[in-house]
Amino acid sequence: RWLFNQAVCTLYAFCGVLFGLCSLTSLTVLSTVCCLKVCYPAYGRCWDVLFDLYLHTSLGAHLTAWPIFAPLAEWGSYGPEPYGTACCITWKASSREATLYILALFIFCYLLPCLLILVSYSLILWTVRVSRRAVRQH
After folding, report:
1. Cβ neighbourhood burial of 44 (10 Å; 0-12, 13-18, 19+)
2. pLDDT at 51 over 70
3. 33 and 49 in contact (C-beta within 8 Å)?
4. Which of 4, 57, 106, 128 could be joined to 8 by an S-S link, Cβ 3.0–4.6 Å?
5. Does the pTM exceed 0.85?
6. What angle do helix axes 112-137 and 6-39 make, rounded to 10 degrees?
């Protein structure tokens, strides 16, 4: 069972969500920058990439802020996991707002970043394949 009080549970879950979303956002930004550098080399001047990286990471930071702080504002909630040994987002939706929070979290913080990563690496593989064919022809 969870050995600490609700405040520690909330802090533990908050940190888990924060670090998880920061990790996925970092991977998304990394895949996007790699895609831009490989697929659009003319676009990849040093200052342009640094500026775009800043824009993407600051945008990612703002996009990932709402799911972290939403349970603290009573939209969704943090609580013990089903086994009761740790704390995370309360996945059993008890209200319409909680259901909407979980659905928005899934779409905007998991599905869209994963799709962006998949598209980025697919474009990289496609570009490598096309350039490999071009080298073979020469």
Report:
1. middle
2. no
3. yes
4. 4
5. no
6. 20
